[in-house]
Amino acid sequence: MKKFPENFWWGAATSGPQSEGRFHKKHANVFDYHYEIDPSAFYDQVGPDTASNFYNDYKNDLQLMKEVGMNSLRTSIQWSRLIDDLEKNTVDQNAVDFYNHVIDAMLEIGLTPVMNLHHFDLPVELYQKYGGWESKKVVELYVGFAEKCFELFGDRVKYWTTHNEPMVVVEGQYLFQFHYPNLVDGKKAVQVAYNLNLASAKAIAKFKAMDLKDAQIGTVLNLTPTYAASESPEDQEAARIAELWNNKMFLEPAIFGHFPSELEELLTRDGVLWETSDEEKAIFKQNTIDFLGVNYYHPNRVKAPDVAPDSVGAWMPDRYYDAYDMPGRRVNLDRGWEIYPQALYDIAINIKENYGNIPWYVSENGMGVSNEERFMNADGMIEDDYRIEFVKEHLTWLHKGIEAGSNCFGYHMWTPIDCWSWLNAYKNRYGFISNNIHTQIKTIKKSGRWFKQVAEQNGWEA
Ligand code: BG6
Q: For 300-326, what is each residue's pLDDT tens digit?
């Protein structure tokens, strides 16, 4: 048997904006707004209005999650739903009732709730008024929202995370134009990265001050381990900077309470360092995470840049490295992401050796596949053997990492039920449970049945 540690989390993750639908939501987040002004930017022009109807269907959905063997679920509380007055941080009672019902329903059926506070879903008014995460005012408003969440739900929710993949906000909104407002501004990107880190540390400070019984707080980072194209000093240098920018910029403040000095030196030399203060440095120092969530989808392979990094032009972090398309790599062509399960072992060992072996879990992993109806059998079940293989391979490498002493306590799949994805909408499906978006009928896939056995046995017969 490949056995996992006792009380291992077998579960999956989703987010409020991708599952609930906009029903009765007072504020638009940046994606709701983007869809309002430009529906053609979204695959098949499908927006977040209905999503997977979790708002109305949560009882049935949670029951299905239980049926695929999950013992834990991460979702998020939407800032744009919970808060009524965004400046005064008053709450919308309908939203409070909704999240109370969801949390109670989860506890009733034995699904441990993990609640995240920000999954790219900034209320758009705060972008329009203050420039969103560019502004420390927005950091303060977020901290007020977080505090409300702890007060309202902290008696029952024992696991909290401050952000999901803050780097995606930096890249999508400020560098590579894949999320609204699609800016290209390296200097702003640096400040946004800092402010997101600061927001996390300040929310943790509030959390700690409340002294909630047995509760823990962490953050969820997309760790894309960096692999250099070769051993050459130029490729190694490219990999060093890519790792600093993509991973260490979030990992180090979260775990050690300060930014990597090599990164600060590089940003200072380039004249783009963030605005900081001694007071904020002290906040980072005192407010580190209890556990780490790691979203892992694909590695980051890099090589020395074709163009010299000191070329003339606006500052961008990727002037120091180019993407390396490794010949012969395995790819999920529907999403365009390399499949490299071994990276989960490398992540496990990296956390063990370089990050104090902090408790961590795989907070997302998964494979988005298009047109899964082609694999539907006569009983209406999708036979997604490729997903079973994918999960098994990743779990195998994770298991090796755990055997080598890494302190990993769970594995969450993205996602329990096929859900709405940012610009790709419902193009690629990731769930253990399929969703017919026209009827909202949800059906367990073959991978869901397989996962149930693995969860029940806490592993599988090797
Ligand atoms: C993660 C996000 O980046 O990957 C999810 O936390 C997202 O929100 C998931 O949906 C899959 O990526 P995508 O772009 O295919 O939906």
A: 999 999 999 999 999 999 999 999 999
pTM here is 0.98
Instruction: Determine the distance from the C-alpha atom of residue 115 to the mean position of all C-alpha atoms in its chain, rounded to a whole number.
Output: 12
Model confidence pLDDT, tens digit, residues 109-166: 999 999 999 999 999 999 999 999 999 999 999 999 999 999 999 999 999 999 999 9
Rounded to an integer, the average pLDDT of 266-294 is 98
- Could you state, in order of their start, the residue ranges of all structural domains in the chain? 2-460
What kind of architecture, by CATH, is found in domain 2-460?
Answer: Alpha-Beta Barrel (3.20)
DSSP one-letter code for 45? G
* Residue pair 82/120 in contact by the 8 Å Cβ criterion: no
pLDDT at 184: 98
**Cα–chain-centroid distance for residue 94?**
26
Any idea which residue has 């941080």 for tokens? Answer: 89
Phi, psi of 331 (to 5 degrees): -135, 145
State the distance from the centre of ligand 1 to the C-alpha of 223, rounded, in angstroms.
13
Catalytic positions, written as ranges = 165, 364
- The closest alpha carbon to 194, from 277, 118, 126, 114, belongs to 277
Residues 433, 12: Cα–Cα separation, whole Å: 11
Give the integer Cα–Cα distance in Å for 149 and 386: 38
Residues 6+ apart with CB under 8 A from 443: 380, 381, 382, 433, 434, 436
Which token pair is 190?
């640096």
Whole-number Å distance, alpha carbon 192 to ligand 1 midpoint, is: 20
Q: Quick check: CB of 406 below 6 Å from ligand 1?
A: no
